[in-house]
């Protein structure tokens, strides 16, 4: 591993926000999921929850499950669920506030949320939005203000705007200040990233030697 | 026109920010341009500048020029240029500060910019970024902080995050407070939107009567 690569892993682990996450319910477009993962990584999120409780969409879930982790996905834990209760139980273990984006309910502005707390932000299906079942688990509902003719933003855009407001608030709050990388949780994550890097390099070598593609 | 529709036009015109714009240089993916237009509309931008100074991309420009305005594009003026100098002369007539996103130059954080001023934000080609020619017109360079393994954000995501930071600053600064819709500039824009709406309704009627598609 080059010193530059090692420093990048250390910087990434130092900036990981263990108290911020995203829940996606029945988001089916893989491009949207990819863009969400990239935004998550960029603000320091280390795990997200992907829930498919809509039977029609569960084939997507299975397909996703089969794919090997690649690109950004490699550096985030993506937890897949088909059971709504199991998903929210897992979220509640680590996050205190779940905020939803649901257009038809009374909602606060994104900019009035305190995103320095232990927060999960929840986004729904591209067409249907969030289900009533998921909304029952929400502690609050927020909107991204819309000043023009368009009624809503694409989910990957809405997610990025929300996450970067979290970044802005947290940066002011010191959440990206230097930390001790020997804290057990960060040390374990760094070790995991090193191992992923090594196995990736080995896979690359094997591929170059024998594989057809 | 329904009272609801009329109120929406009035609200949109009241929120239009005549001192905020976007310049896109050689952005070739139509989905990206579409997403950028939607974000622009959502924060109140009323015009953007689309520059194709790369000969290889000018066919895209011609294609775009041929398309009829539809969707969000209808509510924004999109100014197309193939000549860099002509483009920036037009921008300078109305905007004082041009901020670029260029990874390899020394840059401020987005969050350290004052976006309440007469500002144009400039984004470059998906692969190549901004040209040196365009950079010569920039008054400053900014980055969206990246805390993870990914090096950059998709252009539509980067643009939305930047524009919503402008929204946040401007909202605090009173830029979306009630205004007099009889100000000549706003009155003219409102009249234009009403006319566009009428012509759109008529086109709809003609289509329903006679056209095959």
UniProtKB/TrEMBL annotation, chains A, B:
Binding site for S-adenosyl-L-methionine: 101, 144, 153
This protein's UniProt keywords: Methyltransferase, RNA-binding, S-adenosyl-L-methionine, Transferase, tRNA processing, tRNA-binding
Superkingdom of the organism of origin: Bacteria
Catalytically driven reaction(s): guanosine(18) in tRNA + S-adenosyl-L-methionine = 2'-O-methylguanosine(18) in tRNA + S-adenosyl-L-homocysteine + H(+)
Entry EC no(s): 2.1.1.34
InterPro entries named among the record's database cross-references: Alpha/beta_knot_MTases, SpoU_MeTrfase, TrmH, tRNA_m1G_MTases_N
Pfam families: SpoU_methylase
An example Gene Ontology biological process: tRNA guanine ribose methylation
Record-annotated tRNA/rRNA methyltransferase SpoU type domain positions: 20-164
SUPFAM superfamilies (alphabetical): alpha/beta knot
Principal EC category: transferase
GO MF terms held by the record: tRNA (guanine(18)-2'-O)-methyltransferase activity; tRNA binding
HAMAP family assigned: tRNA_methyltr_TrmH
Family, similarity comment: Belongs to the class IV-like SAM-binding methyltransferase superfamily. RNA methyltransferase TrmH family.
Job of this protein: Catalyzes the 2'-O methylation of guanosine at position 18 in tRNA.
Official protein name in the record: tRNA (guanosine(18)-2'-O)-methyltransferase
Protein species of origin: Flavilitoribacter nigricans (strain ATCC 23147 / DSM 23189 / NBRC 102662 / NCIMB 1420 / SS-2)
Biological classification of the source: Bacteria, Pseudomonadati, Bacteroidota, Saprospiria, Saprospirales
């Amino acid at each position: 591993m080059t010193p530059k690569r090692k420093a990048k892993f250390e910087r990434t682990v130092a900036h990981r926000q263990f108290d911020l996450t995203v829940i996606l319910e029945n988001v089916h477009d893989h491009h949207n999921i990819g863009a969400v993962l990239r935004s998550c990584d960029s603000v320091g999120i280390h795990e997200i929850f992907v829930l498919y409780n809509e039977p029609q969409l569960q084939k997507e879930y299975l397909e996703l499950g089969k794919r090997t982790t690649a690109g950004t996905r490699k550096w985030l834990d993506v937890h897949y669920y088909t059971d709504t209760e199991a998903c929210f139980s897992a979220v509640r273990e680590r996050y205190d506030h779940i905020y939803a984006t649901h257009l038809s309910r009374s909602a606060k502005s994104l900019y009035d949320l305190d995103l320095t707390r232990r927060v999960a932000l929840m986004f729904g299906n591209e067409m249907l939005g969030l289900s009533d079942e998921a909304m029952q688990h929400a502690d609050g509902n927020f909107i991204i203000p819309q000043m023009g003719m368009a009624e809503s933003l694409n989910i990957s855009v809405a997610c990025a705007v929300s996450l970067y407001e979290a970044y802005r608030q947290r940066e002011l709050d010191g959440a990206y200040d230097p930390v001790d990388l020997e804290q057990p949780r960060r040390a374990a994550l760094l070790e995991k990233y090193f191992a992923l890097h090594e196995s990736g390099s080995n896979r690359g070598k094997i591929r170059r030697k024998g594989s057809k593609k």
